[in-house]
Amino acid sequence: MNMIRVSAPKMMLAVAITSGLMLGCAATQPAPAEKPSASPSTKSGATTYSFQDALSTGGAAGPEMVLVRAGTFNMGDITKSGHPDEQPVHPVSIGQPFAVGKYEVTVADFDRFVQATNYRTDAEKGNGCYTFEGPARLWNFVEGTSWKNPNFEQASNHPVVCVSWNDA
Q1: How far apart are alpha carbons 30 and 11 in whole angstroms?
Q2: What angle do CA 26, 65, 70 make, to 5 degrees?
């Protein structure tokens, strides 16, 4: 399982790739990825450990990962001030611990992967991806868009977009 976070001004979207959701392009230019170092770090009294494994191609360090421990938590809007789809609050259990990427996968990270493997994304094979665009600000499928050309300017340190759960 991998996670991609897309950052934009006053907006953060975290998507677990295993959800089957195809991550579309954002209409606003995302903020550059920040990669502070903190191993281990403590927030809210909990200690989080991160680690990096060597990649099988070339032995370079892989992405920094964090452990998500097994356990149960309440999911939903406990303040009842959110959206209706955040109700009802319900328990969610994580049966086994797993690791996820601590930071978003950047365009440069994804480009290195593509160069090493000759991988083609679903958007490249299907000739497009979903983008948030137009005066109505709706998600639309736009032909010819992909992580290489998402229909907005993107730097190498921005989060990669137009990738699907298959591409993870």
Answers
A1: 9
A2: 105
- Reply yes or no: is the peptide bond before residue 40 cis, omega within 30 of 0: yes
Asked if 128 contacts 150 with a C-beta cutoff of 8 angstroms, the reply is no
Vertex 91: Cα angle to 88 and 94 (nearest 5): 140
Facing residues of 92 across strands?
73
DSSP state of 127: T
Distances from the Cα of 13 to the Cαs of 39, 46, 87, in angstroms?
A: 24, 23, 19
pLDDT tens readout for residues 97-119: 999 999 999 999 999 889 888 99
Q: Is the pLDDT of residue 45 over 80?
A: no
Task: Compute the C-alpha angle 6/75/164, nearest 5°.
Answer: 35
Give the type of residue at 44.
Answer: S
Q: Is the peptide bond before 88 cis (omega within 30 degrees of 0)?
A: yes
**Structure-token pair, residue 10:** 């006053």
Q: Which two tokens stand for residue 82?
A: 């959110």
E-strand spans in 76-149?
90-94, 98-101, 128-133, 138-143
pLDDT over threshold 90, residue 156:
yes
Q: What number is the average pLDDT over the span 49-77?
A: 86
Locate all alpha helices (DSSP H) within 40-103, ordered by sequence: none
